[in-house]
Amino acid sequence: MSEELTTQQETAAPEENMESFADMLASQENAQVRIQAGQKVQGTVIEVTDDSVFVNIGAKIDGIMERKDFVDSEGNVDVAPGDQIEAWITHVSSQEIKLARSMSGSGMAAIENARDAGVPVDGRVTEACKGGYHVEVLGKTAFCPGSQMVAGNPESLIGNTYQFLITRVESRGRNIVVSHRALIDRQREASLAALLNDVQEGDIVEGKVTRLASFGAFVELVPGVEGMVHLSELSWSRIMKADEVIHPGDTVQAKILKISKEKGRDGREHTRISLSLKAAQGNPWDDIATSLPGAGAVVEGKVVRLAPFGAFVELCPGIEGLVHLSEMSWSHRVNRPEDVVKPGDVVRVKIKEINPENRRVSLSLRDAEGDPWADVETRFPVGSKVEGKVESQSKFGLFVSLAPGVTGLLPEGIMRSTKTAAQFQKLEKDAPVTLEVQRVDPVARRITLVPEGAQAQPKEPREHKERPSKRGGDDHSWRQHQKTASSTSDSDMGIMAQALQKAMQNKQ
């Protein structure tokens, strides 16, 4: 009796073990991937035989595919051991897992199997019809609503083959409805679930730019799952359009700002992923000490915008400095920045001050060119003959522009004492004139000019400037020139007149 019982237990053991294995496979307690019909899986080819291809998909048993799935039009097998492939699970049992690139076969049995298993089928779009398209699948003609078809020009879809899910089979196959969008949505949901399991807000991720919009750009993080980068999050620089910094196909690093659920127009809940390219790069002000040289350096920058009080110049991405109107020119007073620069111009500027706390950089256009009065005694030595253009003429004398930012004065008294006084008085603005330098005062920014051949005088002593001259003094003439230039045109005002006005105001 004991021996008989032992024999029965040994005979029953294999069946019990088989049942136990089937239960484990169904419950997935010991499998590494989810196993069910209609599931899309990735695997590694481990063997190719005369009629089958075996694939390791991470389960207890390997998946098996038909070799003909990998035979091209010329009869060649396009797969080898070690290749990574994607496939659909078409059937699961305790002995095997069948895989396929899509459901194959023909007739109602194949169609119903594809519907029940949720396995996609290959379908060729044959024609457009009212409300959608006719699609040939597994030897039958199905209908795909226009809203469920891949996006594109209807004419370009005809004749092409896509994958579809069979969503409805009625009237013994006379009414078969398929959907391409349902397949895309299913794949997207699977990819999204896997992505959200791996990342969270604040993580840096990599993706590919898929498309641009007026409000930003879309970046594909995993197949079928996109995140949106708003225009303000594309760059630390000020930009107007996304294509100023990125283009479709670019691979970018982005920071996940927010993951939220929102209802779409279709009434369904969708996951929205907000991204930032600039946040992934870090705030440029945090590295200002290394990204910019110190005060006094001359650098190049791009004019990005204008304001009533000056122009903003981008020195590096996210770092802008201000060139105030007063720092734009040595030669004339500037009332509008657009008279000197325009957005897009690349200019040389001198860094006057960097204030990291307030995130401000003060710049100067004119200092980058150098002070025109710095070497004026060398450029225009006393007694030298100089050529210039008439800047303005008044009853106090003739103001002559000798170089950008450098103006000289031929006093009225000296001009009248010459035989050619009438010629000087007839000169109009911008008329060329040749004179001699009589006196140079770089501190007061003055050059006194005389007609050619007149006796030159040495530099005016410092104490002499405290005494008014017999002809009313140059001070009065310079003041009148400043007043006249201000009432006519700012562009006619030389830097010498500006400096004198400031000096006189301080003196008063």
UniProtKB/TrEMBL annotation:
| InterPro entries per the UniProt record, alphabetical | NA-bd_OB-fold, Ribos_protein_bS1-like, Ribosomal_protein_S1-like, S1_domain
> What GO biological process terms are annotated to this protein in UniProt?
translation
In the UniProt record, does the keyword Iron-sulfur occur?
no
Signal peptide location:
none
List, in alphabetical order, the Gene Ontology terms for molecular function in this entry: mRNA binding; structural constituent of ribosome
Where composition is biased (Basic and acidic residues), the residues are 459-478
Q: Where is this region: Disordered?
A: 449-508
Q: Which Gene3D superfamilies does this chain map to?
A: Nucleic acid-binding proteins
Arranged from A to Z, the UniProt key words for this protein are:
Ribonucleoprotein, Ribosomal protein
At the top level of its lineage, which domain of life is listed?
Bacteria
Q: What is this protein called?
A: 30S ribosomal protein S1
